[in-house]
Structures are given as C-alpha cells and as structure tokens.
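Protocol step 4 of 6: structure prediction from sequence.
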Amino acid sequence: MEDEAVEGRARIYPDDKVSEPAVSSDAATIPTAAERVARRREAALLAALAIAGAIIEYPLAFALKSLDRSELARALPFLGVTILLAALIPLTLRLNRELGLPGAPLLAAKLAGEKLHFSIRSLLRVSFGYALMAAIAGASVLAIVIVPLMLIQHGARGLKLPPTPMLTVAPGRIAFIGAAVAIAAAVSEEIQFRLVLYAIFGWIARLMSRDSRGHPGRRALWIVTIAQGYLFGLIHLAPLAGTLFHSTWRLLLGGLVMPQTWEGVVFGRLYLRRGLEASIIAHASMDVALFAMAAIGVLHTR
C-alpha cells in the first residue's frame, strides 16, 4: 500500500489505525546483537540530530532578527529541554515498537540494512500536501482569531504593529539564513515533538484506552495528536510570555490560538501516517516557503 514505507514494519494505514507488526511482537522477541547495535545507532543519531538542529537554529534565528548576542542566553532553557528530550530517545524508540507508532521507519530500515520499499515521489507529494495544510491551518488561526482579537483590543486607536527587526534585514539574508533555520528547526523540533512526545503521550493514553492489540485506540491517538500540537504551540509562545501574558491561565489559553499549535496537529497526523521523515520534510518545506515569501515581501517594500 502507498502508506507503507518499509516492508515488514508497523505502519499507519489509511483508516488511521496502527497496523499489526509483521513479527509477533518486539516485546516478546529477544533482539539479535545486530538489531541491538542498529537500535543504539538509531537512537544516537536521532539524539545528535535533535541537539545539533537546536544548536544551529538558535544562533541563526537571532542573527536573522539582528538581535544582540547577549540575547542568546534566552535560548539556553530551550536548549536544555532539547537535551532532556534527546536523552529520552532510546526509551521513545522502545515505546514506539510497543505502541505500534511509526517512529523513523526509513532511518531505522537503513541502519538495519533492510530494503526500502517506498516511492520518493509519493513521500514528497504527501509531505508537501501536509505542509500546505499546516500553512492553511496557521493562516486561518491568524485571520479568524488573532487579527480580530488585536483589532478589538486596539479599537478606535487603530492597529499598529511593532516594528519587526527582520524588516531591516536584506532579502537575500532572510531567504538563505531563513532556509537554514527552517531546516534545522524542522529536524530538531520534529524529533522532539513528533517522535519523543508523541510516544510518551501515547504511552499515557494507552493506560486509559487501548485496542485489542494493546495499542492506543483511534480516539486516544487524536487526543495525543492535539496534546503534542498544543505543547508545540506553547513552546513557541513561551518567549512572549513576559510581555504579552501576565498570568498563567492567559498563557495556557494563548497556546490554543497559536498558529504553531494547529500546524503541530497537522504534522502530528502526518507523523502518525507516514513517520518522522515525512513530518520533517513537511515542516521544513513549509518554513522555507514562508521565509521565501517574507524575503519577497521585504524586497517589494524597498
């Protein structure tokens, strides 16, 4: 089937249910020495990618916004969260096998020396389609919720947005540095939120609701998808907490109307259906396109 990326591995079928693994159960089967080595290599590589992506992303993002180097200290707590989640990747991969979640099927198959059975064209087509869906979801939240709320708040005084540092940056710099930030962020954030948090939340959801195979049921998977998307939006809102939100409940409520929250939900559904590689492609392509549009917009204003 088109949704199967690797032969013999548990995949998400079009009805959005986790398929039965080809083997009886990873939990009930003692892995061979080669399998243990491949799993350790997979965990180490994913952890390195998550941390490297964050280390690359934060300085470039601050450079793109023309902020002072002292502002880099604001990124340290987020880097700490990245390191913590990266440390959970070995546990995450084990949970993925128990819960029937896709994980990183292409990477796992490559490291295990398995033959890949997937269409690059199909993978890209689906990923780009979900990237468009995520962009539409984020834009819809901006147009339907955030902009009207800002208009109501400012009232007759008119809506005056604060100057954005990026408007002073050369369009070429926005495009090229923005593309690098987009790719680094997509790799790091998808590993953290879709791979790690999805597995942890899935394990919790399975305690409350499971199907006949011991996997989280469809309703539980939807709850997990929304929960990880909400945290994805909240982490993007955190840098603004001190200036825009002066109470915890307002901050938590603000997470519901963040565009990244609903983009994260879309990426979560893609991860569930196609795995980590697809969600990385979708996330990166959406952000690269947005930076390209921003560069074009700045160029036309000059």
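Step 5 (inspection) to follow. Confidence is low (pLDDT under 50) at residues 1-28.
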